[in-house]
Structure formats: structure tokens, C-alpha cells
Amino acid sequence: MPLPERDITAVRHHCEQRIPPEVADELRIEADVDARGITIVGCRPPWRKDHDPAWTRRGVARLRWTSKYETWTLYWPDRRCLRAFAEPKACPGSPL
Q: Looking at the record's lineage, which domain of life comes first (predicted)?
């Protein structure tokens, strides 16, 4: 079962709303979607544009979809860069 399109749209919209326009050239929050979930990443501009023009990307959170139970599980890096997770609390089909 594919990821719920409604949830993907909600996460992308949430990411777009997190950063004020006046700092959009310094920070971006993006949602990368793959077959099993959504990874929310923070993006920073390059320190030296002449060296490498690519923005630096770091995972902030991971939402993993379990189609059997139709639930999302939230994962995030803890202070030692290990993955912690939260038990799903939302009912299937409820807003994120």
C-alpha cells in the first residue's frame, strides 16, 4: 500500500510553513518521500559557494508508514545520534 497522499501533502505544507521568508536564504526544511516513509531534513547553504554550491542536509525526523496497521511511527536522532521513537498516538486517517 502506498503512503497516504493526504499525509504527504500535510507534512510538506508543514515544512514550508516552518521557516519565515526573511531567513529562507539561510535555512530550509524539506520533506523527502520514499516508498516507506518521509524524512524531514534541515538544509543550510554552503559556507563557501566557490568550493561546493550544494546545501548541507541533515535529517531531523523520520516518519515511517506501517501499511499493515495504517499508522505512522516517528523517529528522531537523540543526543548521541541514535534513533529514538515515539509510539503512534494518532488514529488512522487523522491529521498529523
A: Bacteria
Residue 31, all three cell numbers: 520533506
Provide the domain count of the chain. 1
Residue 94 lies in a domain: no
Residue 47 lies in a domain: yes
- pLDDT band for position 79 (50/70/90)? confident
Q: What percent of the chain has pLDDT over 90?
A: 64
Report the pLDDT averaged over residues 4-27: 95
Distance CA 95, CA 19 (A): 21
